[in-house]
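QA checklist item 7 of 12: single-chain prediction sanity check.
[x] sequence parsed
[x] length recorded as 470
[x] structure emitted
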Amino acid sequence: MFLAIDKHKKEKIALMDDHKNRVTYQDICVFCNVYGKTIKRRSLLFLLCRNTAGAVLNYLACLENDIVPLLLNASIDEELLEELCQKYDPEYLCMPTDATDMCKALTGDGKVVLEEYGYRVIWMDTDACPMHDKLALLMSTSGSTGSSKLVRYSKENLEVNAGNVAKVFGWTESEKPVCDLPMNYTMGLNVINSHLVVGATVVLTDYNLMSPDYWNVVKQEQCTNFTGVPFSYSILTKLRVDRMELPYLKTLAEGGGSLSENEFKMWAEYASRNGKRFFATFGTTETSARMAYLPPDLAVHKTGSIGIAIPQGEMFLLDEDGKEIREAQAQGELGYRGPNVTLGYAVCREDFKLGDVFGGEYHTGDIARRDQDGCYYIVGRKSRFIKLLGMRISLDECERLIRDKLQVENICMGKDEKMVIYITLAHRCDEVSDFISKKLKLYRSVFEVRYIREIPRSESGKILYQQLEI
């Protein structure tokens, strides 16, 4: 059975959520059995996700019964959802029962074929969708905007990655992770998969990190580990979580982007002082979430590193001609090989018939450096470079410099001959302009610092550059 669900203790709680749902591993097996008798195999299903037991159950039942779900946020814009439905024409829509009114225009007279755990499955009476035998799951390349460019997963991608990540972290059935990252976000889904594969109890919550209810859940359920993106850790820092009494919380994991140098050090040292573990990880949707991790015993000494490849994986660097760089210490585009590399992309329904396009190898588009110990550091994006007065400048590196040296939240954007820097502190515009011009040894006139009230971010905390003007 998918993720060896049927091999775990039947009476053990597998999923719990804010709605008082308590689902055992036996309950999952029963639900999957009913699902398989109700929903057509090899059909396309849109699953509108919340961090609830119902959403996870529908996902698991799809994977177990060879039904292919596209995971989307339940709060997706209606127009975006309509565009996706028109483009891919799903045979089923699966959504929270309280969201069906919003989608009446889409479902029309669609027939409700299943309703359990706060979720409703509606048959759309559309034509069957031809698919490759290996296709098991679809995820958007931009979960927050519902991008119509999708990543195609095989069941092996998901299961192998879940097992290897569980091995890296040393997860056992005694773990109790708090999962607040959206399950339609690749790392949120990996947190769920990598714990279910070992028979642990996943604590799902839609509460915001800033909410007292969130921390009541963590304390009452005695959660053992937390996974967050950089934005999550910024909130933890502001809340002074390092001063909370959280004896059961033994592991802190981070991914989805780079922490500032100060925050990385702070949380690594906090974990070291308090008998906890701090894991920095790195991955992409195209590699089924995690592909690299920094062993916690190195966290204090290798600030900012994403570490080494997970088991069965290999990381490497490419030069500007796409050739692999063999030198021990080097810098180039980060590449990865492993069984968790997904099948490829889909931009139309016809693409569902494609097989393994990536062939087990993915070039990330990230620029990384490798140190003398074989640990990797992300230093920027291939596409995030501009030329100022003939000099090649990394926008990501500029963001890091301003953030680390001035402690100013910022976004650096630009085109050749001009850089625009957005900051959230209006009174420090001149200071930022002076600093970056001196640091890069370029005229102030090529920099424009603008005040912005808030940095636009996706649901997973990533900066939405496309919402800002240059």
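[x] summary fact logged: The first helix runs from residue 25 to 38.
[ ] second reviewer sign-off
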